[in-house]
Fold these 3 entries.
Entry 1:
Amino acid sequence: MISCCASFFSANQRQFSDAVARRDLTRYRTRGPDRTTRLLRDAILGEGNGRTVLDVGAGIGALSFELLAAGAERVTAVEAAPAYIAAAREEAGRRNVSDRLDLDARRLRVHSGGGEASGRRDHGSGGMLLPCLPAAA
């Protein structure tokens, strides 16, 4: 198991707190997906992929919910912040998609390319999405 330093974890908890997660979820519910989420959703759907999706750095799950609404069969959403996982779980229940959304709470390590892994999460990127490969027949 990868261990993050205490100062990173503490900073992460402050930046991605319950209050911030609640604000983001309220904004998503009232305004719908933001521009980045719409662009990512449309790109995935435009490629004909997206039946099973891995959403890394999922935040409150906005992109996951958009893909599920557009017909994705299953989404695995990985998120390091417990407050964001809680918000996504609440929204999944509200949307009745809990059976198609796997929430995975993990601390993520991003390799910075400099030889040493840093425990940074790029919140501004909207997450990194990777379509999962179909199961071998």
Note: The beta strands are 52-56, 74-79, 101-105, 110-111, 117-118, 128-131.
Entry 2:
Amino acid sequence: MGLEIVEQTPDLEAVIIPVGGAGLLAGVSLAIKTLRPKVKIVAVEAENAASFSAALEAGKPTKIVMHPTLADGLAIPQVGSNAFRVAKPLVDLAVTVTEEQIALAILRQRRSPRDVRKTARTHRQASGPFDLRRQHRSQCA
């Protein structure tokens, strides 16, 4: 996926990647940073399942207490140790989003049924704290 993003976006500045177990984050980040080291990697996770942030804080994968989240596909109580080891030095910014931000992004997505990039747009909208002024130069994994 990282290779495709690089190939399809020549003026790429940032990639927003959802985090669950961190495998997707590790793989996409490694591919992108290898080919374009200046591209910013933004990890986004639900605050109710913020296992990557907990691992960053502890310096190693740490099991967290899980809470219900709308981002149920990302609800992993502990990031993988290999994935964390690969992803940690490649991530430029880790953002946690609230359930309210996720819900608003889902509602916005439902209002535009013709949008073929719904999932990517949901992650971008939910990652509100990371403001991409030139969104056409960013991609979401």
Note: DSSP finds six helices and four strands in the chain.
Entry 3:
Amino acid sequence: MRGTTVVLVRHAQSRWNAAGLLQGQRGPGLSARGRRQAEVTAAMLVRRYGHAAAIVRSDLSRVRETAAPVERALGLVAVSDRRLRELDLGSWSGREHADVRAAHGEDFTRWSRGGDVDSHGGETFTQVQARVAAVLDEVGSHHPAATVLVLSHGGPIRMAAATALGLPPSGIVRLEPPGNCAVTVLMWSGDGGSRLVSYNDRSHLANVAHLANVAHVAHVAHVGDVQADPPSRAAR
């Protein structure tokens, strides 16, 4: 039987993304650049996946704000699911990478390499894989042979892709972190036959970067809203 086409979309740039802070399950909503990214992404999703049967999303504010434009455009009310939240980073949330590395060097290094470290009060990669696989199995059973938009975070999206590829939880670090509003497509099947169709596609945002640069030159936007996404292997 044909699986469910799961279109995974990472949230748009948040204010903590712009500041280069680890987020986990904390943090504020979108930056000005992020709001523009969300609108452009919604238009693309309507063009490509206007036939989607449902929208499922994380309940965190940066995802709620990213999902709102596509919900309006498609006339669908998203199902909110806490299992699509970002990896819980515990006491590391809200801090810069350098600060966490200095304070918890050994644990941070192990975690960055795929070790099952709970990030000091957070959760492990194994725990994240279990909850992400469970919610996607439910999506598949509720919408067989259909297309479903799933809006989430970098960590769960990488974990979903790793799972589809048959990788263990530590395999998450073998995948490049998806950028803001990047689209990843899976053919999800609960019988273990899932496959990765495409990963980390941000081609629809090319014009947003151009507009952000124009805004920067014109001093229309704050510099924190137009800077590039900070490079990181960490959960955002």
Note: Residues 32-49 form the longest helix (18 residues).
